[in-house]
Amino acid sequence: MPSLALKDIPLPAFVLGSAFDIVSVNDALVALSGYRDHELLGMAVQVLLPAYPEHKLPGAAGTGGTREGSGDENGSIKRSGNSREKPLQHSRAPGEEKAGPAHLALLAKDGQKHLMELRAQTIDSQVFVFLTPRGGGGGGGGGAALADNNPQESEQAYWEWQGDKEEVYYSSRFMALLGYENRAFSGPVSFWEKHINKADVSLFNQQLAQATSGKRTKVNFSLKLVDNSGQEKWVNIQAKVRQSQSRQNKGQQVCHLVGMMKDVSKTQFLLSPGQEQERYLGLVEHLSICGHWRFSPDDEKFFWSSGVFKIFGIRPSNYRPSIEESAHFFVPSQRELLKKHLLTAVSSAKGFYFKTCIKRPSGQKVKIETIGEVELDQQGKVISIFGLFRDITRTEEVFEKLKLLAMVNYTIKVPIFFIDDNDNVVYQDLSPQGDSEKSTLFNYINFSITDYLALKKTTKLKGQIKRNHISFDKFNSVFNLCVTYEAQEGIYIWIVENVTDNFRKEQQQIISNRLALLGNTFGNVSHDINNVLGVALGAIEMLELKYAQGEREISGYIDRVKNAIDKGKSVTERLLAFTRKPPVKVVEFDPIREIKENKYLFKQLLPSSIELSFAFAPVHCLIHFPQGEFINILLNIVLNAQDAIKETGEGGQIELSVVLNQEKHLEIHVKDSGTGIAPENISRIFDPFFSSKSINKGNGIGLANVYSTMYKHNGQIQVQGKCELGGAHFTLIFNCQLEEEQVQEYAALLPGLNIKDKNVLILDDEVSISEFIALYLESEGAFTTYANNKEDLLAHLASGQDYDIFITDMIMPDLSGREAVNLVKAKFPEIKIYSISGYITHEDRKWQYPVLRKPFNSKELADFLMR
């Protein structure tokens, strides 16, 4: 049966036999009395305690009393639930008015006396006597097992509790430590819980619960309490735990705890800062992936911190470090390296540094650097060596990558700068520019702090940025720039190439090419215009001759003039398309509506031998694109289709269709019946200055501009050399936003050309054009009034005449078409507006009224007014 052995009692204790002789002792009594075990065994109790009463066994139940427990010859106590603990005299609990306990002097072997408080328990005709040292006896050096060596602290705060009883015995020193009178007390467990904070009460109850359930045999923990006077103290609580069976409740296990409480405030206050520093040191080791170590040359002890164990991939509980054992972690060729450096450090009294590679038990290889420093005594002798192991695997990998990058840049002689988050230059030895005056980024690039910080911020967000032909001094110097941010290392890698000379050569070449292109283009235009003028001039002179001869049939010569003018119109349209600059602003607009509004432009540019058809899917969407470039791109492709058809020597067909694909992207298809594109030319048609047309028929920049504009604004262009019509097939793909169908901004003006009896106001600075429009509309039954400048317009508006339709030129010397419309709309808000122009400026791209391109004939004017 489990029992509580006398030797487990932390206070001096012994067992008396029926003859008042000592039959068993514990180590605490041996230490206190100065006698040896065999000297105490059989000794009369009065020799040790001269004042011990002879007439009665303290704590005995009396003759014929019921046995409360049993003891064995080895001093083991087997206690039941009926065991009684009786001090020689009852102690006074806090708040009670009772006489204090009796005290006896213990006479040690050296003659010194120790004042003791006695408690006794009778077990099977034997008396177990427990002694609690008191402070008045001077205190020997050998107190109880848990006592301090300080004489003033020889008295211990003792407590005892049997699990099946409600009361706990608290010694006088225990009570004094809690701030009460120096008297023993028996009370509930909860008595001293009021002196502990809630968190520690939970810890205390948890420890007791584990003890009473048999899960632990010892209790040892420290906590902070507040004594009866309000003073804070740190105490250490220790106890032995034994399980026994209760006689009252047969078979039930009873827990018996005997322990001490010790004031450790001074020790705790010293340990707390050290523990905090240890915690911070562990945090630093974790963040810097390192661990510290210490080697003592005298005893060859090798201490590792937790960080070192982590680097080496082992558990502290499974390994005791030593120099010899540590060598096995290093690669075979370097196993003697650490020992060699340590021996050299001891003999030379100097520190060391080296890099090496270790192999963890898992097989993983780790690159480490080792730093060692020596600690010397006053005579200069090395008493210890301390240092760090740091995991540099990741750093070395990055360094190798940077070295490779630097080698590449050494070869091509492109400057490279390594700059950390704090704007410090690092790895300067890897830079091709070395320590020259160009080794600083700001000496190489003359940009401002604001420019530098902006590039740095953008790079940190995106990871990498590239800028070609970038300048910070109005293009006095030009650079190609690539900046990469290595987030894990916190390093910006700046690769900078000064391309000023090449940039200037390229610009000169571009200018030369543009001038040559401009000269070629205007040469062709001049040739075409001269032809037109020659035809018109010849026809007019023939008219004069025939009219002078009295001939009335001159319609053939008039048709020749008209045809010549039509050809001249085509030439000027091409010239306008060439000189038109792309708008800077990117806007949202409806591409299908844009095409519909410019149908007439496509048809005017194409000869009658080429049929242009349109097909639009029933969809309404918006695209984000330069609106001014949109129609130019389509015109460019359509004109290329026209040239391809002309190469066949026959008429042909062009189809322009708009659909929505499965990915909800807008596709515009342009197919033609021309010669198509040879397979070997497919990959080259978007190259600048490449052209497969006949000499003087193409400059090779049209499709290059189309390709550049599409991809610059997130569009795509695809091409097939052959399609079902026989020629090429171009596909333009745009990201779009689908929307519900919207009402047109302006409605159709009139059904057909029914303008009979309508009042029409015409404004154009060219008198002949105003007269031509007025004459034609009057022939259709309308009433017309025309003006040729702003003054005339204001006079007609002030005349009181009402007008139904207003036709205006867009560009005039003294006002614009927009200004004219505003004047007229202010007077007649419901008037219908038409406009005519030989050229649309970029500011007029959003003009909401229909525009007829000059020059035009009566048929084109009629078609325009019937839209």
Any chance you could write out the topology, listing elements then pairs?
Layout: E1 4-5, E2 13-16, E3 22-25, H1 27-33, H2 37-40, H3 45-48, E4 69-71, E5 76-79, E6 86-87, E7 103-107, E8 113-123, E9 126-133, E10 157-162, E11 167-170, H4 172-177, E12 185-188, H5 198-212, E13 218-226, E14 232-245, E15 253-263, H6 265-288, E16 290-296, E17 301-304, H7 306-312, H8 323-326, H9 337-348, E18 352-359, E19 365-376, E20 382-391, H10 393-412, E21 416-420, H11 441-444, H12 449-462, E22 464-470, E23 479-486, E24 491-498, H13 500-548, H14 555-579, E25 587-589, H15 591-597, H16 599-605, E26 610-616, E27 621-625, H17 627-647, E28 652-660, E29 666-672, H18 702-712, E30 716-720, E31 729-734, E32 736-738, E33 759-763, H19 767-779, E34 783-787, H20 790-797, E35 805-809, H21 817-827, E36 832-837, E37 851-853, H22 858-865
Parallel strand pairs: 26-28, 33-34, 33-35, 35-36, 36-37
Antiparallel strand pairs: 1-5, 2-3, 2-9, 4-5, 6-8, 7-8, 8-9, 10-11, 10-15, 11-12, 13-14, 14-15, 16-17, 16-20, 18-19, 19-20, 21-24, 22-23, 23-24, 25-27, 27-32, 28-29, 29-31, 30-31
